[in-house]
Amino acid sequence: MGITIRPDKTVSVRVPLRTPVKEISSFVMQRADWVLKTLKKLNTRPAPVTQGYSRGSEFMYRGEIFSLELTKGLCRSIQLHDGLLILTTPEILPENIVRKMIDNWYRKQALIIFKERSTECHRMMSEERIPLPPITIRTMKTRWGSYSYHTKRISLNQNLIKAPQSCLDYVIIHELCHIKVRHHGTDFWKMVSRYVPDYLDIRRQLKQYI
What we know:
The protein is an alpha/beta fold and 210 residues long. The protein is built from 6 helices and 9 strands, in the order E-E-H-H-E-E-E-E-H-E-E-E-H-H-H. A hairpin with a 5-residue loop joins strand 1 and strand 2. Helix 3 (95-124) packs across helix 4 and helix 4 crosses helix 5. The longest helix has 30 residues, at 95-124. It is globular, with a radius of gyration of 20 Å.
């Protein structure tokens, strides 16, 4: 059984099928203090800043900040140069199209880089003798990654493309470890720490990118 609190303050409870209601209620009551504390923290957080898509808007990419520069050219393209994310188009585009172009660019970069880093992280863990599963890129609001024992796939949050490589590698290694250890117990974190000794610092750092 488990409880999840999302950024929008909705609370959900996960339980095995046919769990008695009395047992579920007892579990929720035991976690009531934690739920209230977490909701209180969410209430004190500042409202998230809305991402802009006009000239000068800032975008994160692999741990660095780039300012959006809009230029005219013969065809549509996006390039990084000297701290700028340069979006070139033949015409002036509405903000929703600029947003779509940048989102598509992020996804294309993620497809390339996530594959490269997954291969490298898997190589680093060769002594574990685990397979390298297919990688799926998803937009997730509350999770950085997951491993499915049903599909044998790793899912990675597309927003990881905004984070430093150390953060991406940690999430990939985290999910690769789950192939051998399902739970988040002592054995699991010992395995993670063999490859990412500073994983606690990285987990704190990741919070700013979701």
